[in-house]
Specification:
This protein is α/β, with parallel strands linked by helices. It has a single domain (about 1-245), classed as 3-Layer(aba) Sandwich (Rossmann fold), CATH 3.40.50. It is built from 8 helices and 15 strands. The strands form 3 sheets. It has a 5-stranded mixed beta barrel with strand order 5-11-10-6-12, surrounded by 5 helices. The chain has a 3-stranded antiparallel beta sheet with strand order 13-14-15, with no helix packed on it. The longest helix has 19 residues, at about 225-245.
Amino acid sequence: MIVILTALNVEQDAVLEHLVDTTVHEHAKGTLFDVGAVVGHPGHRVAVGVTGAGTTTAAALTERARAEFSPSVMMFVGVAGGLRSELGIGDVVVATKVHSYQGGRSEGDEFLVRPRSWELSHRLDQRARRLCRKDGWYDWLSKHARAAEPKVAFAPIAVGDVVLDSTTSELARRIRMSFNDAVAAEMEGSGFAHAAALADQVPAVVVRGISDHADGAKASRDRAGSQLMAARNAAAFAVALAVSLEPQPDSTAQSPWPTSSLPPIYNTITARDHATVDKQIGVQINGGRK
């Protein structure tokens, strides 16, 4: 089982386009997951959940999904704002490092950055890079999306609970100064990565499609369809990556044979002429035995 989390419904829908035979799985606390198999790959089962925006809920629901499904791999998939001009709308970023940019210390008139970062697991990094050979993941794109020839970048991203839509704000300057290796900015990846790391280092990866350039034009680009395109490209790459991994048993599958938690009983039966029968073992059910 692989768990894929998203922040937005448009991102979740983009992943679900690649699944069949989906059913709704409800967590005891009400969180809903869509569980299905990848089209053409019935052995690769995926649980998809939506967290909403922000690092806090991303962290909480990452742990909830991990405890519920015991996945072999976890992914966070969706859109991001690009921080480099060489990244086009619809290009995909595989986060090799997830920076949490909001930690720090305010001292006098200075803000001293105290970053935390999480790195991509080597196994997932290698699998993801292999997908890019001869654009092997393009099979999961629509014909129209393939024609645009989206690229895949392997690079760090910057994460915080702020919608970054400016290249001149104080936050934009801080990211350039202190996290200048980041090529994209988003709002959930650090919560997801932190929770996955605390869960005994569950292999985890953040995959993002570039939907804007964090330059004040986000709203107009979203209306023009860039968010949907970026979400679909990121989902296509994530599903291709999922299929490249060996399928794992579904830990949530129920055994077809019921088991009883009732204790066994041991009867000693006296036979004719005071001979004895050896122990008779069964399960007590409403005063009888099974």
